[in-house]
Amino acid sequence: MDLSGVREAYETGGFDEADLADDPFAQFQRWFGEVEAAGYWEPNAMVLSTVTADGWPSARNVLLKKVDADGFVLFTNYTSDKAVEMDVSGRAALTFSWTELRRQVRVTGTAERLAQAESDTYWATRPRGSQLGAWASDQSAVVPDRATLEAAYAEAEDRWADRDVERPGHWGGYRVRPSMVEFWQGRPDRLHDRLRYCLDGDGGVWTVERRAP
Ligand SMILES: Cc1cc2nc3c(=O)[nH]c(=O)nc-3n(C[C@H](O)[C@H](O)[C@H](O)COP(=O)(O)O)c2cc1C
Hints:
The protein is of the alpha+beta class. The chain is 25% helix and 34% strand.
């Protein structure tokens, strides 16, 4: 398939330093509100990139569940490939692709597990079916067939029949604390706006730089 003829026009408005919020979290929330208003399906989907112990890049979609001044929060299985990779490297990158709005946000930072109480709080909001699924799926492991998965789910249903499903110890959240957050706005003639917040040393001060598109 040759996609070289696919062209997109970038006729949206610009994005200048003067438009930026004081910190990347406020700026993210501003853009996220606009993405939600635009009617995206799963506007909180993001690519989580990690690196394996032997240096291979590794990327997959996950859902952003919370963002505040402490960082970006996601949930997963602690025995999954991504979790092992974050535990070993302590690092992660996130990419939000909101192409209908000609926008992208990139995040790089440290990755750490949430406190158990924080994972418990979110677990309690999950639909029962998702909770049972977390017990049934040994995420990232090889499974012989679909029937094995369905049998594990049925087993979880029996085990937790008539009572609340507890959070498995192997399931919980991560917080990505950014040291870099870049906002990209598509513009005509490939002169896109790239404005990047960088955390300055230990002082916790965000500086902004413009990068060539
Ligand atoms: C839109 C979308 C959202 C997803 N959200 C999550 C999520 O929040 N947590 C998760 O563990 N997997 C999520 N997944 C599945 C992951 O992409 C991936 O298949 C799974 O986590 C296993 O990844 P790993 O083997 O690299 O650890 C999502 C997939 C898609 C397509």
